[in-house]
């Protein structure tokens, strides 16, 4: 067997191992050192209907699109790169995956060890490049000896890692030249995609007693987890303060309170009277909720499915419990009255009615997001950008009988890779998609407009363009008047609609809520991608924010 053939069949074994862990989507960056991997993947895609190969020119964007697939499917997704700085471009997505304990796989080709550190082209030290942002990493040997046996050993390592410690994986694969076989080689193994068997669920050994009135706080959850939280709320006769990422925030339900920001800002004395707080899921979007928890005097439990510590207050009693057992892990100890719950529900209803009219008083980000929350079809996936977008959507969103499933990148909460992540959701689910981001987030990820051009389903990208970082107007940075605009706000004067049009995308600019409603509903009726740029005055947000009254007088 020639060295080129060894490279090819070693690549096939590596892909087999990843397929055995459930990987179906492979995101392939251009490059020659990764040629054996690329050749195997593209040829597998010709014969296997569940091998999906996606190609693109920007490794950072590819990795975030793969992250979107992981979020939407729950299965590993793989980014394939050549050697050198191409690998470093994967770091932001690996950081986000590590923060959320998601199985994003970086499959990076490399030069052989004898070419590292001697001035060879496109050769850097790649093992360990992602530092502690991976759950498992391995620098594989050059292909030598029985390839099937080596592939089986790799498969065992991957399976064990993904079961024991969820999170991103880095496989570094050196290949020596020649990289291209002289002729097309037959596939010797047809790998089967098999999701790792879930860890065996063990019924909680110790049931947690809930004393007195109970308040549930729902953090970032998927739909199945959210349903378990609702079951527990019914069992404990508890009320739920719902984060926008909990899949419960827009639910019309007598036990779900939609206005976490206002309740935790204005009703702390009432909230502090609850004897027990149970928090479920991942990170919380709104700062006032965390501030409430930091001073809460009662019994505070934080429950998650993983071992990851998500308690910035240092006050919670943390417990790892599978979501399927959440309704079984707690029982009411003694009698709990409903008086507190009724008071809190009444305050929530009053606040919601009071604010419904206030959201529409001025043309601003508040008004636009409140409007959109009532228009987005329930069958759409909804991806919310960071900074102002997700915070204001959480405050203003209408409650509905049916509403879209919400996604976001709230691991490291950065603005990079948002468009690519959103596109990955659609690649995995094949559903219509609405994406709402700010102007700086869109500018930061312009390369990912490439993914919008590939969209076959309806995809609506709404860019709230307030000409810079207006979130800083809420912060002490605004008092630094001599440097605020240059150092923080950073106005740019760039038209996102014009950029989208130049890239061949359907785009439209709007400057009023009536125009936004019309443009959005039209975009939802067409296949493919539409970019809607919402032009907003730079000071619209802060003027509206200062005029808001959180509670009825």
TrEMBL record:
Its cofactor is thiamine diphosphate; Mg(2+); Mn(2+). The keyword Ubl conjugation does not apply. GO terms for biological process: menaquinone biosynthetic process. Its EC number is 2.2.1.9. Pathway: Quinol/quinone metabolism; menaquinone biosynthesis; Quinol/quinone metabolism; 1,4-dihydroxy-2-naphthoate biosynthesis; 1,4-dihydroxy-2-naphthoate from chorismate: step 2/7. Residues 410-534 form the Thiamine pyrophosphate enzyme TPP-binding domain. Residues 211-384 form the Menaquinone biosynthesis protein MenD middle domain. InterPro entries: MenaQ_synth_MenD, MenD_middle, THDP-binding, Thiamin_PyroP_enz_TPP-bd_dom, TPP_enzyme_TPP-bd. The keyword Coiled coil does not apply. One of its GO terms (molecular function) is 2-succinyl-5-enolpyruvyl-6-hydroxy-3-cyclohexene-1-carboxylic-acid synthase activity. Residues 11-125 form the Thiamine pyrophosphate enzyme N-terminal TPP-binding domain. It holds the Pfam family TPP_enzyme_N. Binds 1 thiamine pyrophosphate per subunit. It catalyses: isochorismate + 2-oxoglutarate + H(+) = 5-enolpyruvoyl-6-hydroxy-2-succinyl-cyclohex-3-ene-1-carboxylate + CO2. Keywords: Magnesium, Manganese, Menaquinone biosynthesis, Metal-binding, Thiamine pyrophosphate, Transferase. Homodimer. Belongs to the TPP enzyme family. MenD subfamily. Catalyzes the thiamine diphosphate-dependent decarboxylation of 2-oxoglutarate and the subsequent addition of the resulting succinic semialdehyde-thiamine pyrophosphate anion to isochorismate to yield 2-succinyl-5-enolpyruvyl-6-hydroxy-3-cyclohexene-1-carboxylate (SEPHCHC). This is 2-succinyl-5-enolpyruvyl-6-hydroxy-3-cyclohexene-1-carboxylate synthase. The gene is menD.
């Amino acid at each position: 067997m020639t060295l080129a053939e060894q490279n090819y069949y070693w690549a096939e074994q590596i892909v087999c191992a990843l397929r055995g862990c459930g990987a179906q989507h492979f995101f392939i960056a251009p490059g020659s050192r990764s040629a054996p991997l690329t050749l195997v993947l593209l040829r597998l895609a010709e014969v296997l209907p569940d091998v999906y190969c996606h190609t693109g020119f920007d490794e950072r964007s590819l990795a975030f699109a793969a992250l979107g697939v992981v979020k939407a499917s729950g299965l590993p997704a793989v980014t394939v790169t050549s050697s050198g700085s191409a690998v470093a471009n994967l770091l932001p997505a690996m950081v986000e995956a590590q923060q959320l304990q998601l199985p994003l796989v970086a499959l990076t080709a490399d030069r052989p060890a004898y070419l590292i550190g001697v001035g060879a082209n496109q050769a850097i030290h790649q093992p360990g490049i992602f530092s502690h942002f991976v759950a498992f990493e391995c620098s594989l040997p050059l292909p030598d000896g029985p390839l099937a046996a080596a592939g089986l050993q790799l498969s065992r390592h991957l399976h064990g890692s993904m079961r024991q410690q969820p999170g991103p994986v880095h496989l570094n694969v050196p290949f020596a030249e020649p990289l291209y076989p002289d002729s097309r080689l037959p596939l010797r193994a047809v790998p089967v995609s098999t999701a790792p068997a879930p860890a065996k669920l063990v019924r909680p050994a110790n049931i947690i007693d809930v004393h007195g009135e109970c308040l549930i706080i729902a953090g970032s959850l998927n739909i199945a987890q959210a349903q378990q939280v609702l079951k527990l709320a019914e069992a404990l006769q508890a009320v739920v303060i719902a984060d926008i990422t909990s899949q419960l925030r827009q639910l019309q339900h007598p036990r779900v309170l939609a206005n976490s920001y206002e309740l935790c800002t204005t009703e702390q004395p009432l909230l502090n009277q609850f004897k027990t707080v149970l928090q479920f899921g991942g990170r919380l979007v709104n700062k006032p909720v965390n501030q409430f928890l930091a001073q809460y005097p009662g019994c505070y439990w934080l429950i998650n499915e993983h071992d990851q510590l998500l308690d910035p207050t240092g006050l919670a009693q943390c417990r790892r419990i599978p979501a399927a057992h959440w309704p079984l892990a707690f029982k009411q100890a003694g009698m709990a009255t409903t008086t507190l719950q009724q008071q809190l529900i009444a305050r929530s209803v009053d606040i919601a009615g009071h604010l419904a009219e206030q959201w529409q008083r001025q043309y601003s980000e508040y008004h636009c997001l409140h409007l959109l929350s009532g228009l987005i079809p329930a069958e759409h996936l909804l991806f919310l950008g960071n900074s102002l977008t997700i915070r204001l959507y959480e405050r203003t969103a209408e409650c509905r009988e049916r509403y879209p499933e919400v996604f976001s990148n709230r691991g490291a909460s950065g603005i990079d890779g948002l468009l690519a992540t959103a596109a990955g959701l659609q690649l995995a689910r094949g559903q219509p998609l609405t994406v709402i981001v700010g102007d700086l987030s869109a500018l930061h990820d312009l390369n990912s407009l490439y993914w919008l051009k590939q969209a076959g389903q309806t995809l609506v990208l709404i860019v709230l363009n307030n000409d810079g970082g207006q979130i800083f107007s809420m912060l002490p940075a605004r008092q630094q008047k001599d440097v605020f605009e240059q150092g923080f706000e950073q106005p740019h004067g760039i038209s996102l609609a014009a950029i989208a049009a130049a890239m061949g995308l359907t785009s439209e600019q709007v400057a009023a809520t009536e125009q936004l409603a019309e443009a959005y509903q039209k975009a939802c009726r067409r296949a493919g991608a539409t970019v809607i740029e919402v032009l907003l005055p730079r000071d619209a947000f802060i003027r509206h924010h200062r005029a808001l009254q959180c509670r009825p007088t």
